[in-house]
Amino acid sequence: MEYMFLLNSDEKQRAAMSPQTLQEVGGAYLAYTDALKAAGVFVEGNRLEATTTATTVRVKSDGTTAVADGPYAETKEQLAGYYVVDVPGLDAAISWAARCPGASHGVIEIRPVGAVTAAA
Protein backbone atom coordinates (compact mmCIF):
# COMPACT_ATOMS: atom_id res chain seq x y z
CA MET A 1 0.00 0.00 0.00
CA GLU A 2 1.25 3.46 -0.81
CA TYR A 3 1.55 6.13 1.86
CA MET A 4 2.58 9.76 1.53
CA PHE A 5 4.76 11.32 4.19
CA LEU A 6 4.08 15.07 4.37
CA LEU A 7 7.13 16.64 5.99
CA ASN A 8 6.35 19.82 7.91
CA SER A 9 8.96 22.03 9.52
CA ASP A 10 9.61 25.61 10.53
CA GLU A 11 11.17 27.52 7.61
CA LYS A 12 12.61 30.10 10.00
CA GLN A 13 14.48 27.36 11.86
CA ARG A 14 15.97 26.08 8.60
CA ALA A 15 16.93 29.61 7.50
CA ALA A 16 18.86 30.05 10.76
CA MET A 17 20.98 26.91 10.25
CA SER A 18 24.67 27.26 9.54
CA PRO A 19 26.00 26.04 6.18
CA GLN A 20 27.61 23.09 8.00
CA THR A 21 24.32 22.12 9.67
CA LEU A 22 22.47 22.41 6.35
CA GLN A 23 25.05 20.11 4.77
CA GLU A 24 24.64 17.59 7.60
CA VAL A 25 20.85 17.69 7.34
CA GLY A 26 21.04 17.28 3.57
CA GLY A 27 23.33 14.30 4.01
CA ALA A 28 20.89 12.73 6.46
CA TYR A 29 18.06 13.06 3.93
CA LEU A 30 20.22 11.53 1.17
CA ALA A 31 21.07 8.59 3.43
CA TYR A 32 17.39 8.14 4.34
CA THR A 33 16.37 8.22 0.68
CA ASP A 34 19.08 5.66 -0.14
CA ALA A 35 17.76 3.41 2.66
CA LEU A 36 14.22 3.63 1.27
CA LYS A 37 15.52 2.74 -2.20
CA ALA A 38 17.66 -0.14 -0.89
CA ALA A 39 14.61 -1.55 0.88
CA GLY A 40 12.57 -1.32 -2.32
CA VAL A 41 9.87 0.88 -0.78
CA PHE A 42 10.73 4.25 -2.35
CA VAL A 43 8.18 5.51 -4.89
CA GLU A 44 9.07 9.20 -5.06
CA GLY A 45 9.98 12.18 -2.94
CA ASN A 46 11.34 15.67 -3.04
CA ARG A 47 11.72 18.84 -1.04
CA LEU A 48 9.63 21.89 -1.76
CA GLU A 49 10.78 25.46 -2.21
CA ALA A 50 9.94 28.01 0.51
CA THR A 51 6.37 29.15 1.01
CA THR A 52 7.38 32.55 -0.35
CA THR A 53 7.32 30.88 -3.79
CA ALA A 54 3.80 29.46 -3.32
CA THR A 55 0.76 30.48 -5.31
CA THR A 56 -2.73 29.68 -4.03
CA VAL A 57 -5.61 29.17 -6.47
CA ARG A 58 -9.28 29.05 -5.53
CA VAL A 59 -12.37 28.98 -7.73
CA LYS A 60 -15.13 31.00 -6.08
CA SER A 61 -18.81 30.05 -6.07
CA ASP A 62 -19.42 32.52 -8.90
CA GLY A 63 -16.90 30.68 -11.07
CA THR A 64 -14.14 33.32 -10.92
CA THR A 65 -10.63 32.25 -10.12
CA ALA A 66 -8.81 33.92 -7.25
CA VAL A 67 -5.02 33.72 -7.28
CA ALA A 68 -2.89 34.81 -4.33
CA ASP A 69 0.82 34.78 -3.59
CA GLY A 70 1.88 32.70 -0.65
CA PRO A 71 0.63 29.63 1.16
CA TYR A 72 -2.98 28.74 1.91
CA ALA A 73 -2.59 29.27 5.66
CA GLU A 74 -0.11 30.92 7.98
CA THR A 75 1.16 28.22 10.31
CA LYS A 76 4.09 27.59 12.64
CA GLU A 77 5.27 24.73 10.44
CA GLN A 78 5.16 24.61 6.66
CA LEU A 79 5.01 21.75 4.16
CA ALA A 80 8.66 21.27 3.29
CA GLY A 81 8.66 18.08 1.25
CA TYR A 82 7.23 14.65 0.78
CA TYR A 83 7.95 10.99 0.24
CA VAL A 84 5.70 8.33 -1.22
CA VAL A 85 6.49 4.82 -0.04
CA ASP A 86 5.00 1.45 -0.89
CA VAL A 87 4.91 -0.68 2.27
CA PRO A 88 2.72 -3.50 3.62
CA GLY A 89 0.72 -1.33 6.03
CA LEU A 90 0.52 1.55 8.48
CA ASP A 91 2.92 0.00 11.00
CA ALA A 92 5.65 -0.17 8.35
CA ALA A 93 4.85 3.39 7.25
CA ILE A 94 5.17 4.61 10.84
CA SER A 95 8.49 2.81 11.21
CA TRP A 96 9.89 4.44 8.06
CA ALA A 97 8.50 7.88 8.98
CA ALA A 98 10.17 7.68 12.40
CA ARG A 99 13.51 7.14 10.65
CA CYS A 100 13.08 10.23 8.46
CA PRO A 101 15.30 13.17 9.47
CA GLY A 102 12.21 15.41 9.30
CA ALA A 103 10.73 13.65 12.31
CA SER A 104 13.51 15.08 14.50
CA HIS A 105 13.03 18.73 13.52
CA GLY A 106 9.38 18.88 12.53
CA VAL A 107 6.38 16.63 12.14
CA ILE A 108 5.47 14.03 9.53
CA GLU A 109 1.87 13.42 8.57
CA ILE A 110 1.28 9.96 7.10
CA ARG A 111 -1.64 9.54 4.71
CA PRO A 112 -2.66 6.59 2.57
CA VAL A 113 -2.60 7.32 -1.14
CA GLY A 114 -6.07 6.68 -2.52
CA ALA A 115 -6.63 4.81 -5.72
CA VAL A 116 -7.91 6.82 -8.64
CA THR A 117 -11.19 5.44 -9.87
CA ALA A 118 -12.98 6.10 -13.14
CA ALA A 119 -16.12 8.21 -13.01
CA ALA A 120 -19.31 6.20 -13.38
List keywords for this structure.
120 residues; alpha+beta; Alpha-Beta Plaits; 4-stranded antiparallel beta sheet; two-stranded antiparallel ribbon; 32% helix
Concise account of the structure shown:
Helices cover 32% and strands 33% of the residues.
How would you describe this structure to a colleague?
With 120 residues, the chain is of the alpha+beta class. It has a single domain, classed as Alpha-Beta Plaits (2-Layer Sandwich). It has four helices and six strands; from the N terminus they run βααββββααβ. The protein has helices at 11-15, 19-38, 90-99, 102-105; strands at residues 2-9, 42-47, 55-59, 65-69, 78-86, 106-112. The chain has a four-stranded antiparallel beta sheet. The protein has a two-stranded antiparallel sheet with strand order 3-4. The chain starts with a strand and ends in an 8-residue tail after the last strand.
CATH superfamily: Dimeric alpha+beta barrel
Radius of gyration: 17 Å
Order of helices and strands: EHHEEEEHHE
CATH overall fold name: Alpha-Beta Plaits
In total, how many beta strands? 6
Helix content: 25-40%
Structural class: alpha+beta
Strand content: 25-35%
Mean pLDDT: 92
- What is the count of DSSP helices, taking H or I runs of 4+ residues? 4
Q: Which helices and strands occur, and which strands form pairs?
A:
Elements: E1 2-9, H1 11-15, H2 19-38, E2 42-47, E3 55-59, E4 65-69, E5 78-86, H3 90-99, H4 102-105, E6 106-112
Antiparallel strand pairs: 1-5, 1-6, 2-5, 3-4
